[in-house]
Structure to design on (239 residues):
């Protein structure tokens, strides 16, 4: 990994950021052995262990081509005991399309068979960069956090996002909803959640599929929340 990072940084300094790159992310439950031992409920402990086994088979791909990028789950054949919930647990559903010049990100997502394209700005989050750093794969990463305010069927509240990003790789992208920082996101999770995205691999590519924003009609997050609320209420009324 360190060798790959060194080669990538060399290419970035020589050729700039108009080249093509593939960033591979994994996902894990960051529960220590001592925390597991303190769990008295055997079924809960087994669920965590089984889910982590499923996470071992999951990979997500962030493709970057100049000012455009795309993040998505990499489909493949998984073992029979693979838990499909691991794909979207903690984030990872659908496809994220980024257009840096227009400051747009579109999340293509599915809800009971229908596709929706939810649009927002790449810099829509108000990230707070903290005075904390750590070395990840030989590079200095900085910690940042932000609060997402929600007012939907769950009620009113906030979700705090935490990330470690690397300014030496100044792409404003990352896995799933974790984007808009002055550097590539190396690690990310929702606060109080043990499920974490982490950067596994970096590659420089010669060719890459053309990345474009979807042409379909987009909706806002607020409109998507209303659609979700209606679907849930309709399902409840059918019981």
């Amino acid at each position: 990994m360190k060798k790959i990072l060194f080669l990538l940084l060399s290419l970035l300094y020589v050729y700039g950021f108009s080249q093509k790159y593939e960033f591979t992310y994994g996902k894990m439950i960051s529960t220590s052995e001592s925390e597991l031992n303190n769990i008295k409920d055997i079924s809960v402990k087994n669920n965590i262990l089984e889910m982590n086994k499923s996470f071992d088979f999951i990979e997500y791909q962030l493709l970057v081509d100049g000012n455009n990028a795309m993040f998505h789950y990499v489909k493949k054949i998984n073992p029979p005991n693979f838990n499909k919930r691991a794909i979207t647990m903690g984030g990872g559903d659908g496809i994220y399309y980024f257009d840096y010049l227009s400051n747009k990100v579109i999340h293509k997502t599915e809800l009971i068979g229908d596709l929706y394209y939810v649009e927002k700005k790449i810099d829509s989050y108000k990230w707070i960069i903290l005075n904390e750093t750590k070395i990840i794969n030989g590079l200095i990463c900085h910690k940042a956090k932000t609060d997402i305010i929600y007012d939907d069927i769950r009620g009113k509240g906030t979700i705090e996002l935490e990330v470690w990003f690397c300014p030496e790789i100044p792409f404003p992208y990352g896995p799933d909803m974790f984007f808009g920082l002055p550097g590539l996101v190396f690690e990310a999770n929702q606060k109080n959640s043990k499920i974490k995205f982490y950067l596994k691999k970096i590659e420089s590519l010669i060719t890459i599929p053309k990345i474009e924003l979807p042409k379909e009609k987009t909706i806002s997050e607020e409109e998507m929340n209303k659609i979700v609320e209606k679907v849930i209420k309709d399902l409840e009324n059918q019981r």
